[in-house]
Design goal:
137 residues; alpha+beta; three-stranded antiparallel sheet; 5 helices; binds zinc ion
């Protein structure tokens, strides 16, 4: 059977959440390069992240589910600056040097927050924030 890349992830946890969503909808899928990224996150950029592979006949449905999940997520995390839902959760490369902490937290407790700094980036106004940020006024 042919498999197509539905999405890529730079975090083991995000990749598994997405795969779990698809599996619960009976989508035939698996993660490629998961081991490379988990063992040495520094190589994540080199291999292009963890790839979520989906059986070719199910790719349409899979993308639909992933889009839906993303939209729900965005609606729960609107931009505090302009209120837009056009927000994405991204890694900040300059803070990605703490890969050992990430590795340890993944190995010891897959549910622990990632040590790598990730921020929400608003594509409408360019504002960046993390979910600990609270409105001061
Ligand atoms: Zn904004």
């Amino acid at each position: 059977m042919d498999f197509i890349i539905a999405s890529t992830y730079d975090s083991y946890i995000d990749a598994h959440l997405a795969m779990g969503n698809l599996l619960s909808e009976d989508i035939n899928c698996w993660l490629k390069d998961e081991n490379t990224v988990t063992i040495d996150p520094v190589l994540t950029n080199a291999v292009g992240g963890i790839k979520l592979m989906v059986a070719a006949p199910q790719i349409g449905r899979a993308l639909e589910i992933l889009q839906q999940t993303k939209r729900q997520y965005q609606e729960q995390h609107p931009c505090p600056n302009c209120g837009s839902a056009n927000v994405e959760y991204i890694s900040t490369p300059k803070k990605a040097s703490n890969w050992l902490g990430t590795f340890v937290s993944v190995v010891l407790n897959a549910g622990a927050p990632m040590a790598v700094k990730k921020v929400y980036h608003c594509f409408d106004c360019g504002f960046e924030f993390d979910d600990a940020v609270k409105k001061t006024e």
